[in-house]
Amino acid sequence: MESTLLTAEDVARQLRIKKYTVYELIKRGELPSSRVGKQVRVSQEDIDRYLRAGRTGPFFAGEEHRENRTDRKGESSKDKPAAGIPDSAPALLREVQDKPLSTTPLRTVPFREPAEDPLILCGQDICLDLLVSRLSALGFGPALRSYTGCYNGLIALYNGKVTMAASHLWDSQTNTYNHSFIRCLLPGLPVGVFRLVGRIQGFYVQKGNPLKIQGWQDLARPGITMINRERGCGTRILLDQKLRLLKIDTRNIQGYTRESTSHMACAGIVARGGADIGCGCERGAEHIAGADFIPLQPEWYDLVFRLGDQDKPALKALISYITEDEFKQDLALIGGYDLSQTGNYTEF
Q1: Domain stop point among 66, 82, 108
Q2: Which of 58, 66, 8 is nearest to 33 (CA)?
Q3: How far apart are CA 186 and CA 176, in angstroms?
Q4: N or C: which end of the chain has fewer CB within 10 A?
Q5: Is residue 174 part of a domain?
Q6: Of 77 and 54, which is predicted with more confidence?
Q7: Does 289 lie in the same domain as 257?
Q8: Which domain holds residue 12?
Q9: Are residues 294 and 213 part of one domain?
Q10: How far is CA 325 from CA 1, 290, 332, in A?
């Protein structure tokens, strides 16, 4: 009987691991895979054989599994429990059905050894996970992630320490996003800028918003406590400019000097009662049961890269993906983004 073909998401659900762990298993040769068009597929038969193997060494396609092999103590392996499958936290990307299988003949995924420095992608939003997944699916060496804030990410790009840097930096003087910061922080460096998505910035508050928080001015209310974001991230830069425009002295805000380094962590602190207000994007509160989100400002999330790197194979693959309709479709499946400017491109 013909074996069922599964997507990486299907495999991740079945093994109770993250989707990116599935790609790593494929890359290391532990889990055989095939290509259907541009998509990775894994057969149910190979998953079953991988689980029966109960080992962490490479598992090669076509290898016969010896059900009754004996270990050094003379114990039959069939009497031992199967290797444990690790639990993982719920994925932020919503589980979605992939596109229908094409009739393209199956072939083995040609994973490549990296022939260049690894691609380092700087930013936190989960839309960047799509880019990392695409590189893995195409067989490039693993992309490395840096979760440094936008301001410091652009500095790192200028210094050649990262390949691409995400940015959502608001300029209060022009009421625009990113471009003025790129000009100032990357002087003389030719760069390309792709607009990825639109998001919403705002406040995390406790469930039901018991303190009736409405806007930036509420940070000046006596008795209100906050959890801030780290210096250099786009959320912190937005907040500081709003406070300056409202002439709110940060020394009078309880908790202003306390910092959290991610949207989700910030929302979690508010949900546990550690603060009344936290700052971040809407998606940060999605999986936090005790937090609500107060929308305050739309923003644009861009991706910046050095033009001198645009001919590197891995970067070319990402640029191609960003400019394809498939990228928009994948973002739409995640949901919650403004895609009206996705793929727009500018050079500086």
Answers
A1: 66
A2: 8
A3: 17
A4: N
A5: yes
A6: 54
A7: yes
A8: 5-66
A9: yes
A10: 36, 36, 11
Position 345 pLDDT exceeds 90: yes
pLDDT value for 57:
38
Name the percent of the chain in helix, strand, coil, to the closest 5.
35, 20, 45
**Tens digits of per-residue pLDDT, 71-111?**
434 444 334 333 333 343 333 333 333 333 333 343 444 44
Model confidence band, residue 116 (pLDDT cutoffs 50, 70, 90): low
- Would 250 be classed as within a structural domain? yes
Query: Can you tell me the distance from the alpha carbon of 298 to that of 295, in angstroms, rounded to the nearest whole number?
Result: 8
Q: Mean pLDDT across the chain, nearest whole number?
A: 82
Instruction: Check the CA dihedral 165-166-172-174 and report its sign.
Output: positive
Give me the number of domains the chain comprises: 3
* Cα separation values, 82 from 50, 157, 251, 305, Å: 10, 45, 58, 45
Concatenating the DSSP letter of every residue in 111-175 gives -----SSPPEEE---THHHHHHHHHHHHTPPPPEEE---HHHHHHHHHTTS-SEEEE--EETTTT
